[in-house]
Write a structure and sequence with these properties.
Layout: E1 8-13, H1 16-27, E2 30-32, E3 39-43, E4 51-56, E5 69-71, H2 78-88, E6 91-95, E7 105-108, E8 114-117
Parallel strand pairs: 1-4, 5-8
Antiparallel strand pairs: 2-3, 3-4, 6-7, 7-8
Protein name: Glyoxalase
Pfam families: Glyoxalase_6 (PF18029)
Length: about 130
């Protein structure tokens, strides 16, 4: 059987450099950009994880994303991560947190692409190493 690993997740952007900088701050990925290029790739520090490729497009995002990223904080809490991402320019789109502390927050990046912030491994009672 031949496996086809995901090499990149591609995101259309009006300003690929600005959007890549936002996602660098979100993910801790590594930059790989040329200032005049219409494509910006950021790569994961872990081998085998897909990169995020931002490509300049002229059209406007229309409707809900059919694919989105789920972010799980490696440390701290979901709510601390939501606050950090708000400070970076994200917005809350839908809040699915429950009074018991479960749930997730659907956010939008600075160009309106949806992503979710889940509870951290620690909040789930899982090992954090």
């Amino acid at each position: 059987m031949i496996l086809n690993p995901v090499r990149h997740i591609t995101i259309d952007a009006h300003d690929p450099h600005a959007l890549a900088r936002f996602w660098l701050a979100v993910t801790g990925y590594l930059p790989d950009e040329e200032p005049d290029d219409d494509e910006v790739l950021i790569t994961a520090p872990q081998p085998g994880a897909p990169g995020l490729l931002f490509i300049r497009v002229g059209d406007v995002k229309a409707g809900k994303n059919r694919v989105h990223l789920d972010i799980q904080p490696p440390e701290g809490t979901r709510d601390e991560t939501v606050q950090r991402l708000l400070a970076l320019g994200a917005t809350v789109y839908e809040d699915h947190r429950t009074p018991e502390g479960l749930g997730w927050v659907t956010m939008r990046d600075p160009e309106g692409n949806e992503f979710c912030v889940e509870r951290s491994a620690g909040e789930r009672g899982l090992p954090t190493s």
